[in-house]
Amino acid sequence: MQSTVFIVGAVLMVIGAAMGMIARGVAPYVFAIGALAFVAMQVLQRYEGENFTIQRLRRIMLFSDVLLIVVAALMFADHGNPFGLDQLTWLNYVHNNWVVVLLIAAVIQLYTVYRIDAELQKEAKKR
Fold it and tell me: What pTM did the predictor assign?
């Protein structure tokens, strides 16, 4: 069940990000639902071992999960000026900057997933 929710969440995030340029009204909702499902499943995964490297990588992965939630918030904020900023400031710091945060979160996710997998394989070989 968790694997299904995890995969559905990831697919919804991809669809929501792609829709961000096409169907801007629905995209934040699709992305937010996907991000919440994806992040919830990653938070539920535990590592009970003693490997400090894996523990550190898990913390980095959780940081990227927070960034995914920030992306969803920025996608909602992109539809108007909810912060009451002047137009120039809003355009410079909020408008479409969710793409940059999404890129950072995706790179961190990729890095941590591959590094955790390599560390787990290395740990399994020691046994």
Answer: 0.85
Asked whether 6 and 37 are in contact (CB, 8 A), the reply is yes
E strands present in the chain: none
Element containing residue 9 per DSSP (H, E): helix 2-19
How far apart are alpha carbons 64 and 67 in whole angstroms? 5
The angle formed by the CA atoms of residues 36, 37 and 38, to the nearest 5 degrees, is 95
Q: What share of the chain is helix, strand, coil (3-state, %, to 5)?
A: 75, 0, 25
Determine the residue type at 99.
Answer: V
d(CA 45, CA 66): 15
Q: How far apart are CA 113 and CA 27, in angstroms?
A: 26
Residue 25 DSSP SS3? coil
pLDDT per residue over 82-105, tens digit each? Answer: 667 777 777 776 677 888 999 999
